[in-house]
């Protein structure tokens, strides 16, 4: 359904205590230096809790501001994040019945491809009759999902000690997002479908060290196989390829380097289907309680990444929601794949 969001205020949240002098400057590790400037995000949807004393939007907003202020004193690289308050003219339960990723991006404090240097930003939106959604974006250079959900920043914020920054030639990675026409769809797999897929991908051989795949491993293999089948990108085992002896002889440095160069060339030509998987399963995503109860749903919004698959636990914990970003042409073929639809829970595909 269409979402109308009106921004009514902006605030800058400061740490509850002054940052020590020796922590004023945060040094990125070499790995973070060369990584693209990517903003991750999460949407937390909360219903109105009749038993909570924090039912007014002002009370909830004050609680969030206080929580962020105290958190910034502990996680100093995130200090100085802005809080945006907005008001949406719709009803939470009505929205959850018609979830559209393209509309959910309006609950985020900024566009995900903005040239934004803020490490963390938060937008709090209120629905009619009291439901709210918190949209959070954070720079992946500074924080990952693990540190975000578990509040364990010791290793992440001290990674420059393990991977010292380099002062060599300047490298400016792109943002990791393109201008392709991306479609995102949400597919839900219940526990019985996941158990069936795990059984399909399990080995009966006792010699195999890991005979049974995890839920995410089984679903990853299944999604990848259905994408290959839908886009007709499967390899032909009967096809013969000519070996260019002259080319091989001109590269005495070794086969590994040749293989790498060939792989890069195939990627550039689009001959290889690259699919990136990331999982937030088993993370305490539904434990984010600011004093008015736990989220009713954890969602995502349209991303600009092509061929990205993200796994979320369902609220009950026994199923998995899969958010898939594909080019529109590939999605049109993938979403009607009969074998895929045989495992997807009925009526659980979000149409964007």
From TrEMBL:
Q: Provide this UniProt record's keywords sorted from A to Z.
A: Acyltransferase, Transferase
One Pfam family, short name please? Transferase
Q: Which GO terms describe its molecular function?
A: acyltransferase activity
Q: Please give the family membership noted in the entry.
A: Belongs to the plant acyltransferase family.
What is the official name of this protein in its record? Uncharacterized protein
Source organism? Carya illinoinensis
